[in-house]
Amino acid sequence: MLANSPATDPKAVGTKIRNTLDQIELCIKKQCLISDVLEQETISNEELFVDIDHMLDKNTERMEQVKEELANAKQETVETLKNLQSQLDEDQEKQQQLEQKLVERRKNMYSLAILLNNLEEEEDIVDALDTHASDEGEAME
């Protein structure tokens, strides 16, 4: 009876060995598939890293260009502002000169108006005296 026990039965042992070999073969196939997938993922990730590095290099280069453009634009803006400030200062100086001339001319016009008024008063006095003298001259005759 011991000869026919499942642990010692050659058919059962053969079946068990075949099942174990099938499982080992299945595990090896799975390991190969996993290895292939991992290799493909590794290649894909390496390509992605290369692309990312390339994009970073391009972006860094572009940022340097933009920095340079901004520096040039800033310099131009500063020069433009200096020119505008200079022009504004000149215009303010001209405005002050014109305002001063206007004040002087107003004073001159006021003085002239006073002189004309005084002259008219003197003419009125002269006319009054002439009229009075002619009235006296007529009265004497």
Automatic annotation (TrEMBL):
| Keyword tags | Coiled coil
Asked if the Swiss-Prot or TrEMBL record annotates the protein with the keyword Coiled coil, the reply is: yes
Coiled coil ranges (UniProt) are: 56-108
Q: What is this protein called?
A: Uncharacterized protein
Q: Does the keyword Coiled coil apply?
A: yes
